[in-house]
Structure formats: structure tokens, C-alpha cells
Amino acid sequence: MKVLVTGATGYVGGRLVPRLLAEGHEVRTTTRDLDKPAPWWGDRVEVVEMDIGDERSVDAAIRGVEAVYYLVHGMDGGDFEDTDRAAAHHVATAVDTHGVQRVVYLSGIVPEVDHDDLSAHVSSRLEVEEILGRSSAVVITLRAAVLVGSASTSFEIIRQVSERVPVQTVPAWMNTQVQPVAVVDVIEALVGALDAPGPSRHYDVGGPEALSYAALLDRYAAIAGLSRPQVEVPLLPTDLVGSLVAALTDVPSPTVRALVQSLHHDMVAAEDDVRRDLLPTGYELVPLDDAIRRSLADPRVESADDPEQADPMGPLPQDPSWSSGGDTDASLLARSADAVRGAVDRVRGT
């Protein structure tokens, strides 16, 4: 099948493309800059220039493919909702114009609460799903919560907070449940979504275990060999927590704040149909402890002299500079001071 992968140089896309190639699919990827160095698998795909915000370039990129993977997420600016909405409309229009048979969209778990109570991040993801779902294609949406794997934004936040903060202050409202899932399991489901039966629908994708965020931090610390006592703190404002976490980690700050906003509700799978419809018969999901261990591979050892043979759970060459634990040389004291200053500024509205 001829497949377009948008967001192919991102975390999930960069791991999905070689898996699709291994399955024999013909892959087209997009970039905003053709002069940018190609990923390690770049010589095996067709690359076209595309700006997701430009309707004409989206139309040209989609022309001639049978399926589209929509892996574009905007969380790096205050107008990400408008950007995501326009991008989804551009893709849906091109899909209709060129008769694309299938769209596969990776989204996030949508908690069972009133729409007005959803975070801006989750609300935008749901809106994109609805826009794509109104196209003429069969649209398969995978909704996942925390993706476990080196370079996953959620996992890197957990890793960097755990490694950099000796005593973890956990907001009382962060006792909600989450169902982490290994990125290799998500990749397997994404590949399976190309052949899933219609009509359009979403699938919740969760790992074998659900637990609280505090318990997840505890589990990470134990597996990483860290001693990290926890102190529950009531009445910590969400914006304050987002600012503190953003300052203490190397993950882009707008992304951190958007994700923290989503922690107020349980992020667990409401159904398990993905095992029946998208995963191979007998496929076993990676247990949480194993997923964390595999994600902690040392990049100096595992850094892919031969990325084709590397574990996708660990580091890969195209991962961002803030992954694999980020900048470990930066002073914790300096980070803490920056975190406090940033939090005070946000509280004051400056």
C-alpha cells in the first residue's frame, strides 16, 4: 500500500516508518525543509515538501496515496487549537479530493467527563478526530495516554522530574489513574490499523496496568534505582505545577504545560477492542516494568551504530536533544531557582 506519514520525523513517526517499510509498504513522508538532514531511514522513502498549514501543499502531498497517517500535534504555542483545526480541515479536504481510502490518527485518551471539563489539549485532539471523521475515508483513531519509551514527551517528563528532584511534591489532585503503554505496542496497533475493519471508529490503547500518577513516579524511581520520597501537597494550582515541571525539565515548556493540564482526569482505556482488531493474534503487550527498563537504555551504548537493529523503546538517532534524560550537566540549584522565578511570574501574571 502507498502510505503518507505526516509527522514522520517526530517521536512516533520516526519509529513507525521503518516498521511500515519492513511490512512492504511504499512510504511517502513530509518535511517543511527539503535541505534538512534526513532520518536514518530517509533513503528508502519518498520525501515531499509540505506545510500542514498550507492547503495547497497538503493537497499535493496527499495526491496519489491510499492511506494517510496523521501524526501531527501542535502543543508548542498558545494558538495550537486553531493550528490543529486548520490542519485537520486541510487533510480532510485533500482526502476527499483524491479519494484516499483510509486515515489513521494517533490521539490521546478522552476521559469520560463533560466536554467543557476537558483540557485544551484533549479537547483539540477530539476536535481533530471529529473533523477527520467527517471525511470520505475510513478513519481509525488510536487514543493513547502515556507512551513509555525513550524520547516520548510524557516519559521524558517522568524521567527528568524523577532524576532531578530528590523529594517529589505531588499535588493532591494528581491521584487520578493512567494506563501507560509501550511505544512498540502503539506502533504495532498503528500498523494493524491499515487493515482494520470499517466503519470509522476510535480505539483506546492502554498497557496491561493502570495506576495513579504518583504510583507511576514511584515505579519509575524503583526501576531506575532512585530513592524519591513523595509528599502530597494540597491546593497546588495546575498552572503553578505546569510552570515548575517545565522549568525543571528540558522538554519544551508549552508541551509540558499542555500535558499537565490533562492530569486532572483518569486517562485509562474504556474498551479493549484494539487487541481483537488491530494487534496480531496472540500478541502480548509489554509489561510496564519491562517497558521502563527498555526505555532506560544508555544512549552511549544503544545509540544505533545500526539503528535498524536497535530497540525502538530506547534511543534512536533522530530523537530530540532533550531526550535520554536531557541535559544532565545543568545545575539542579539553577533549575530550581528558574522554576521558582517562573512560577512566581505566572502567578503574578507577568
Fold and architecture overview:
The protein has helices at 11-22, 55-62, 80-98, 120-133, 153-164, 183-192, 213-224, 238-248, 253-260, 273-277, 288-295, 299-302, 332-348; strands at residues 2-5, 26-31, 46-49, 67-70, 102-108, 138-144, 147-148, 168-171, 177-178, 181-182, 201-205, 211-212, 230-233. It has one domain (2-348): Rossmann fold (3-Layer(aba) Sandwich). It is built from 13 helices and 13 strands. The relative contact order is 0.14. The N and C termini lie far apart (52 Å). By secondary structure, the chain is α/β, with parallel strands linked by helices. Helix 4 (120-133) links the parallel strand 5 and strand 6. It is globular, with a radius of gyration of 20 Å. The strands form four sheets. A seven-stranded parallel β-sheet has the order 3-2-1-4-5-6-11, with helices on both faces. Strands 7-10 form a two-stranded parallel ribbon. Helix 8 (238-248) packs antiparallel against helix 13.
